[in-house]
Design a protein that fits this description.
The protein is mainly alpha-helical. It has a single domain, classed as Orthogonal Bundle (MetI-like fold), CATH 1.10.3720.10. It is 72% helix and 2% strand. The chain has 13 helices and two strands, in the order H-E-E-H-H-H-H-H-H-H-H-H-H-H-H. Strands 1-2 form a two-stranded antiparallel ribbon. Helix 3 runs parallel beside helix 7 and helix 3 packs antiparallel against helix 10. It starts with 9 loop residues before the first helix and ends in a 9-residue tail after the last helix. The mean pLDDT is 87.
């Protein structure tokens, strides 16, 4: 059913607050960031020299930045895929009639309430090379302690696990809500037709969860690129050997530590553009497979 406004200007008037927020907090900062990226800026901001696309050219010829680019891609794919898969499996279990299910649900949602820095501190405490609990138990079980935070590959696995755990409650809430809205009649019809539990999930449940899965895909992608800074800063500080130095942490280093203002502005603009492009690609590809009931 379509709605009509008697006054043709009323819809635009109602959208003015939204436009103001978007202009002040999104479009203007993005424009200023791009403008600043075209300059070489003195470390103390005393003067600026117009340099055109020099900062962008320097970025894409920097081995450290390209390495950070690849680490970010691996990290984001792992967080999205592992996070959504584990959350869906747990949500399926929580959707069953279990004793004390409200307690289980509350415990699983709590990690999302923690700040990324606190989540990083918890995993730092667990994987600390000197006195971490997991290192101690692994030495008892397998006879040696893996270099969790001193090996670049293992450190990337640890921050992926930490980021996935931190966002797990958020994903579970949405999947659980979606599962509780799946039509029982459709499941019963599939069961009558001889479909087993796996078949019912693949042909009935999962397609009905496609809008939620698509939404979580976008949100987890944004989370992996932008919201993992605090966790990495506390847990690994981008190390060892830049093994966990994702784009947002490289941006922090160049701006706050190395005082490369124009260079960091170029990094910020590239990161923003990258996430927007990935989101648009997902809308063009994955979005076509979403079925809204």
């Amino acid at each position: 059913m379509q709605s009509y406004f008697k006054n043709k200007w009323l819809p635009y008037i109602l959208l003015i607050p939204t436009f103001i927020v978007l202009i002040v907090f999104l479009f203007y900062p993005a424009f200023e960031t791009f403008r600043l990226s075209l300059y070489k800026v003195h470390p103390f901001g005393i003067r600026k020299i117009f340099a055109g696309f020099y900062n962008f050219k320097k970025l894409f010829t920097s081995a450290d930045y390209l390495h950070s680019f690849s680490v970010s891609f691996i990290f984001s794919v792992a967080v999205v895929v592992v996070g959504l898969f584990v959350a869906l499996m747990i949500a399926l279990l929580l959707n069953q009639k279990l004793k004390g299910q409200l307690i289980y649900r509350s415990f699983l949602i709590w990690p999302y309430a923690l700040s990324p820095a606190i989540a990083g501190a918890i995993f730092r405490f667990l994987f600390n090379p000197a006195n971490g609990y997991l290192g101690y138990f692994s030495s008892l079980i397998v006879g040696f302690e893996p270099p969790w935070l001193t090996n670049s590959t293992l450190a990337l696995v640890v921050i992926t696990a930490a980021a996935t755990w931190k966002n797990l409650g958020y994903n579970i809430i949405f999947y659980l809500a979606g599962l509780q809205n799946v039509q029982k009649e459709a499941l019963e019809a599939a069961s009558i037709d001889g479909a087993g539990p796996v078949k019912r999930f693949s042909i009935v449940t999962f397609p009905l969860l496609s809008p939620i899965t698509f939404f979580l895909l976008i949100m987890n992608l944004i989370y992996s690129y932008f919201a993992s800074f605090g966790l990495i800063d506390v847990l690994t500080e981008g190390g060892p050997a830049n093994g966990t130095n994702i784009l947002i942490y490289q941006l922090y280093r160049d701006f706050f530590i190395n005082s490369k203002t124009g260079y960091a502005a170029a990094e910020s603009f590239i990161l923003f553009t990258l996430v927007v492009l990935l989101t648009l690609i997902q809308f063009k590809t994955t979005g076509k497979k979403v079925h809204y009931q």
